[in-house]
Amino acid sequence: MWVEETVARFQSSHIRMCFITYSTDGQTVLPLTSDKNRIKNGLDQLRKIVPDGHTFMQAGFRKAIQQIETFNSGNKVPSMIIAMTDGELVAHAFQDTLREAQKARKLGANVYTVGVAGYKLDQITAIADSPDHVFAVENGFKAMRNTIDALTSKVCLDVTSVEPPTVCVGEPYHVVVHGNGFQNLKKQDEVICRFIFNESTIIDEKPTSIDNNSMNCPGPKLEKPGEGYFIEVSLNNGKTFFKSNVSVTSTTCVSTRMGLQTRMRTVQSLLPGEDRKGRQFPGSPRK
């Protein structure tokens, strides 16, 4: 089953999933959860469902929006909606779906569409965030397996590493943030690199360059040895941020007689406490 194979690609325990079907009405088969047993049970239920009736995709979007609003408690958290159809939407259903998709975007969701058979390409393209968010096959459900790799490479949004992991105290520098899903950005001027020293000290910078898997950002000046920060990234002008455990820490650098610099790692001091995501802050508190 295409859904089952796609779900298997998402290995992170922090990802919550929701299964929704729609025809004339929408039905939430599985509310948002990260519990693997509940997800497995939800997949079992999906196998038994044969939707019939009208192709009212807007009904499915409404259920998805309810889940986002309920579980995010009003906060804008990165979300992805993958809307699949095997039929054409009548005029009023298409217009209603466009409106619901826009509501979902305002809540921080990226919208992808998958056309299987009998769909209208212009409709699913208009509903999705962009043509790059559209996956369409002409040979029905059996051909859908060919879309899994391409879809999951775009949907999996995260920050994986940073270069360099240590920088010299008092010196200007840039960091290269590596990750997945950066191609989801709509406008480069909406991208923000966020540097979190602690819960009260946060610095935002605009990247100087971006590609599908990395971005180059000017780093904030570090004034003390052992000072550090976590890095987060927003692709939608700060509406939502992709959190990570990727961090940068300062080191003491001294000049040698040859005029070269040698980095001397200092003992990393940690803040007494974690942030709301359970991350232990690197470095000393910034005053």
TrEMBL record:
Q: How does it sit in the membrane?
A: Single-pass type I membrane protein
* GO cellular component terms, A-Z: cell surface; plasma membrane
Per UniProt, which keywords does this protein have? Membrane, Metal-binding, Signal, Transmembrane, Transmembrane helix
Keyword Metal-binding in annotation: yes
Subcellular localization is given as: Membrane
* UniProt-listed PROSITE patterns: VWFA
Q: What is its main location?
A: membrane
The GO terms this record gives for MF are: metal ion binding; transmembrane signaling receptor activity
The cross-references to SUPFAM superfamilies, in alphabetical order and at most eight, read: vWA-like
Question: Is the Transport keyword given for this protein?
Answer: no
Pfam families given for it? Anth_Ig (PF05587), VWA (PF00092)
Q: Where is the VWFA domain?
A: 1-151
**Family according to the record:** Belongs to the ATR family.
Q: What is this protein called?
A: VWFA domain-containing protein
Q: Which organism is it from?
A: Rhinopithecus roxellana
